[in-house]
Amino acid sequence: MHLEPTREQTAARGLARDFVAREVTPYAADWDRAESVDRALVGKLGALGFLGLTVPEEYGGSGGDHLTYCLVTEELGRGDSAVRGIVSVSLGLVAKTVAAWGSEEQKRRWLPGLTAGELIGCFALTEPGTGSDAGNLTTRAVRDGDSYRLSGTKMFITNGTWADVVLLFARSTDAPGHHGVSAFLVPADSPGLTRRAVRGKLGLRGQATAELVFEDVRVPADALLGPAGKGFSVALSALAKGRMAVAAGSVGIAQAALDAAVRYAGERTQFGKSIAHHQLVQELITDIAVDVDAARLLTWRVADLIDRGEPFAVASAKAKLFASEAAVRAANNAVQVFGGYGYIDEYPVGKLLRDARVMTLYEGTSQIQKLLIGRALTGVSAF
Questions:
Q1: pLDDT tens, residue by residue, 330-376
Q2: Which of 12, 46, 196, 229 could be 116's S-S partner, Cβ–Cβ 3.0 to 4.6 Å?
Q3: Over the chain, what HEC string results?
Q4: Pick the CATH number of 233-378 from 3.40.720.10, 3.30.2350.10, 3.10.180.10, 1.20.140.10
């Protein structure tokens, strides 16, 4: 593994950095207060190829490798994690899953629009009563001739109110646990599907988060993604790569915290000199910097394993665990550097701390990541 990005990867990171500086950073605080990112941003992300990274060009994707995807994701997370979430879900969890598991017809139908930013996808796994216990879903898919009827409720669905297609996981047989789960591609305008915005979140306020209610929603049998009863495998494969994106976004949050803390420490004067001269402030900044580097390298390792075709699920869990917790520590330390000013939203570090906190919760909590890693190390089966 080379620890220096290639010229092409560096160019992609530069493109993302310029985009964030122009289209994201100036508006992030306002989006946070309004609890809504400007939806026009989706088309701009698509036009730059950010919504098609690693998806084959024959389906409208922009190709590229997973390190490039991580570099772009980090920059988006550095600017506004709510924007990063649009890409991580619509591309990372939905488009990539369609590319990996979809029929030729499904790929042709959905991928060009998703990668161009003309369509948005959401990943509907979590339910009000089943977060970490994803194998015991209650949403039902009942076969009815040449179609399925879908009923149930999904909660905390990123992109939920914006989505054009829902990657839905539902129980299609009476087999116990994860064995009875299937995956479906459901048009979001299907009759019987109701979407309600989730407001008042601690962080990621600009992100379109929703509750989805399915009341006898009918989809054709060819909406099934992958084999019937293999939906849990579809979900796990998506989440294994998705955790890499969460880790990369967490690195972006931590890097933003470092940038803000260093800049403020050089500007703020106390006791006759800038606070950058005070050793305990230097300690706070040093801790952030070490966390940034460690989290970044763990994340890059996952991308390298994927691109070389090696097993990566455990490495992805490690990266997600460390980077998400590191982002919380980094943002918290940055608030401490800012002192009282870090507690008001005129400065960015309070938002960074609020946004970082959810990174330890979604796509598998920190405790779930520890279970995955522990089981892999001890050889203990999850089921």
A1: 999 999 999 999 999 999 999 999 999 999 999 999 999 999 999 99
A2: 46
A3: CCCCCCHHHHHHHHHHHHHHHHHCCCCHHHHHHHCCCCCHHHHHHHHCCCCCECCCHHHCCCECCHHHHHHHHHHHHHHCHHHHHHHHHHHHHHHHHHHHHCCHHHHHHHHHHHHHCCCCEEEECCECCECCCHHHCCCEEEEECCEEEEEEEEEEEECCCCCCEEEEEEECCCCCHHHHEEEEEEECCCCCEEEEECCCCCCCCCCCEEEEEEEEEEEEHHHEECCCCCHHHHHHHHHHHHHHHHHHHHHHHHHHHHHHHHHHHHHCEECCEEHHHCHHHHHHHHHHHHHHHHHHHHHHHHHHHHHCCCCCHHHHHHHHHHHHHHHHHHHHHHHHHHHHHHHCCCCCHHHHHHHHHHHHCCCCCHHHHHHHHHHHHHCCCCC
A4: 1.20.140.10
The predicted pLDDT at position 134 comes to 74
Domain 123-229 class in CATH: mainly beta
pLDDT tens digits, one per residue of 106-135:
999 999 999 999 999 999 999 998 877 777
Q: Is the pLDDT of residue 1 over 70?
A: no
Q: Tens of pLDDT along 12-42?
A: 999 999 999 999 999 999 999 999 999 999 9
Say yes or no to pLDDT of 62 above 60. Answer: yes
> Taking the domains of the chain in order of start, what are their residue ranges?
7-120, 123-229, 233-378
* Catalytic choice (35, 75, 127, 363): 363
Q: For the structural domain made of 7-120, what CATH number should be given?
A: 1.10.540.10
pTM of the model: 0.95
